[in-house]
Amino acid sequence: MEHDYQYRKQIVLGYKETVMPLVLRYLPWFEKNGTQTATSQYRDEAISEHSMAFPVYNSMVINFVKEASRTNLMDKNYRYLYTRNRIQSHDDERRLIQQATWQEWDILRGILSYYVLGGMSKGMLWNEAVEEQIFCLILQKMKEIIEYWDRPVVAGRME
Fold it and tell me: Taking a C-beta distance cutoff of 8 angstroms, is the pair 101, 66 a contact?
C-alpha cells in the first residue's frame, strides 16, 4: 500500500515540475479573463478595402501556447483520445476534465494538446479554448491533482 502511494507521488512530482510554472504564470490570467475573446482583428487605415483583416492574439495566450508546446504535456496522438472517448463537444471536454484524476492525466494532456497543437494550423482553436475556459479548467484540474498528491504523509495518512 505504501509502495503504491510512493509511486503515485513520484509520478505527480514529475508532473509538478512541468505544470506549476504554467499554473503560476497563466492560470490567474485565464481565471480573470475567461470567456473573453483572445483575439482582435487587425485593421489598419493603410490597408485597402480589398485587403483581408487577420486575427491578433493576446500576448498571454501566445506565450502560454509557446510554453505549453515545449513541455512534455503535448501528446501528438490527441486525435486518438478524442475518438476513443467519443469527445464531440465542449461539454464532453469539460465533463472529462472535471472527472479526471491522476490516472486520467493523459486525457488532460490530450485535450490540452488538441487546442495547443491543433491551434497551430487552425488558429481559432486558441480563441475557442479561452472562450470556453478549456485552458483554465485544465490548469485548475492539474493544479488540484498535484496539490492533492503533494501533501505530506503523517502517521500513514495524508494531511
Answer: no
Query: What is the DSSP annotation of 56-93?
Result: EE-HHHHHHHHHHHTSTT--TTHHHHHHHTT--SHHHH
DSSP secondary structure letter of residue 52:
P
Q: What does the chain come to in residues?
A: 159
Instruction: Return the C-alpha cell found at 114.
Output: 488538441
Q: Is the pTM of this model over 0.85?
A: no
| Backbone phi and psi for residue 57, each to the nearest 5 degrees, phi listed first | -85, 150
Phi, psi of 94 (to 5 degrees): -60, -40
* Percentages (nearest 5) of helix, strand, coil residues in the chain: 65, 10, 30
CA distance 117 to 61: 13
In tens, the pLDDT along 16-50 reads 999 999 999 999 999 988 666 555 555 555 555 66
Question: Collapsing DSSP states into helix, strand and coil, what is residue 155?
Answer: coil
Give the number of other Cβ atoms within 10 Å of residue 129's Cβ: 28
